[in-house]
């Protein structure tokens, strides 16, 4: 789990802030999102495509990401270079904005400033603009269960089928229907913790279950003839700080990838007991 993501979405929420569905005291209006009282970088709760980046009169900057059929609107963001652009693909945990005191005194219309200072107002709905204007028929969801879900599902890990062929099951039970037999050395991406000895895996874009005892974590060798492979604090050449470099030929353990597909560009590996990120194309 991305540390920023966990810290941000478990930030203490003071009583001055509202959960989903609470009534405003002054105006008769339902609170259509959840408030998270903190400052600094705002990480994306879910992977998504940026569909709106707008400056509103009541909620400052709003960034909207599409995730499947839902839209996640991050409201009350300060104008900074951190804002993404429409069309960008954003990873879970990637910084998509900032919460800061800076703009507040100068912007009376900066929502939330009158009574409670910087906070993220997160709205999950079925329409890209439902967070900041009236949209007939839009449905609002409580973000809390989605936050809990994100914080409890571990990051994807790559694993390999050991010793012999094993079966993919439709449910975490040995008497569940078998979907497919996986030959030895098949690589799978695990996306969930063990339930009764099973791991939840992604395979060909489907979710299935596999016996945990049939998988091993993948090891790989750094392949950068004549140079070293830099490792970073985050899976990005922009926000990831360079922490050091691994010589050609170093054997590393791959803990996971940035995303849930086998075409992800970054791999999370252990170096001296620390978890860091490297470009996956240099691992063989
Ligand atoms: Zn709010």
How is this fold's topology laid out?
Layout: H1 3-9, E1 34-36, E2 40-43, E3 48-55, E4 61-67, E5 70-77, E6 89-90, E7 95-99, E8 120-125, E9 140-141, H2 143-152, E10 157-161, E11 166-169, E12 178-182, E13 187-190, E14 198-203, E15 206-211, E16 215-217, E17 219-221, E18 228-232, E19 242-247, E20 251-257, E21 266-271, E22 274-279
Antiparallel strand pairs: 1-8, 2-7, 3-4, 3-6, 4-5, 5-8, 8-9, 10-13, 10-16, 11-12, 13-14, 14-15, 17-20, 18-19, 20-21, 21-22
Structure write-up:
Helices cover about 5% and strands about 40% of the residues. The protein has three domains: about 5-150, Glucose Permease (Domain IIA) (Distorted Sandwich), CATH 2.70.70.10; about 165-215, Roll (SH3 type barrels), CATH 2.30.30.40; about 220-280, SH3 type barrels (Roll). It is mostly beta strands. The relative contact order is 0.12. The chain is built from two helices and 22 strands. The model is unreliable at about 105-115 (pLDDT under 50). Bound molecules: zinc ion (ZN).
């Amino acid at each position: 789990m991305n540390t920023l993501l966990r810290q941000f979405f478990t930030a203490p929420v003071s009583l001055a802030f509202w959960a989903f569905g609470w009534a405003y005291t002054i105006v008769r209006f339902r609170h259509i999102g959840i408030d998270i009282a903190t400052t600094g970088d705002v990480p994306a709760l879910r992977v998504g495509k940026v569909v709106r980046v707008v400056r509103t009169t009541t909620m400052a900057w709003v960034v909207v990401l599409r995730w499947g059929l839902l839209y996640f609107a991050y409201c009350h963001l300060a104008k900074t270079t951190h804002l993404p652009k429409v069309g960008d693909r954003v990873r879970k945990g990637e910084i998509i904005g900032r919460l800061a005191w800076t703009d507040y005194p100068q912007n009376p219309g900066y929502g939330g400033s009158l009574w409670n200072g910087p906070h993220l107002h997160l709205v999950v709905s079925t329409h890209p603009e439902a967070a900041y204007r009236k949209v007939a028929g839009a449905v609002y969801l409580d973000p809390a269960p989605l936050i809990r879900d994100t914080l409890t599902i571990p990051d994807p890990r790559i694993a390999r089928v050991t010793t012999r062929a094993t079966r993919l099951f439709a449910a975490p039970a040995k008497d569940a229907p078998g979907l497919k037999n996986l030959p030895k050395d098949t690589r799978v991406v695990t996306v969930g913790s063990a339930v009764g000895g099973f791991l939840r895996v992604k395979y060909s874009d489907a979710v299935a279950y596999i016996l945990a005892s049939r998988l091993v974590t993948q090891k790989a060798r750094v392949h950068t003839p004549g140079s070293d492979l830099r490792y970073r604090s985050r899976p990005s050449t922009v926000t990831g700080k360079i922490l050091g470099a691994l010589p050609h030929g170093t054997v590393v353990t791959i803990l996971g990838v940035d995303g849930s597909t086998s075409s992800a560009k970054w791999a999370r590996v252990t170096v001296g007991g620390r978890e860091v990120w490297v470009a996956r194309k240099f691992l063989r």
